[in-house]
Amino acid sequence: MLEKFEKRIIITAAALLMIFLFFLMYAVGRFRTDLPACVPYDKAYTHPHITQLDDSTYQVFMVARMWSFEPAQIYLPVGSEVDFYVTSLDVVHGFDISSKNINMMAEYGGIAKSSARFSEPGVYTITCHEYCGAGHQAMQAEIIVNYPTKR
Amino acid sequence: MSDNFKSEDFKPVGSIAFFILLVLICMAIWFGLYAIMLQKA
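YS: structure for the whole thing
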């Protein structure tokens, strides 16, 4: 039914596609990639703030706009577990914490949620990785994780 | 290629079917991931 060369091309393309999908799923398993959650939109999420639920659990409500994140600096103690809720006030922005495997999009009218645990001290950079205009290359925020000072 | 085959007789039936199959697979992947993201909320 199929012409000989067409059949060969289709088989070759299908084989390459299977190889690609295999390595994609391998990377998902290897790096424990997780999907962000789609949270129903509420205007309350457009007010940037940080909420502490208990000693080690925080919620960060991040708002992206051209060309900054708010809050721009987040201070957290070592060992804290954080839920990030991100939205945008204008165009689509990216929200990427590469060392924590968090990769989301901040979209106007939508809320994306992802979680991470910060068990090592350091400075974690939040980068916008979706082109959003002239200031896109400088659009960053920081999460500073340190041991809490003893009082 | 058979001696009776003529290039003007060729119709890309297999290619069209493969393309439709790819579109359906992409739709399945997209809606599957969308459902997972909604369920996580």
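YS: worth flagging: Chain A has two domains: 1-33, 37-146.
IM: good catch. Also The mean pLDDT of chain A is 92.
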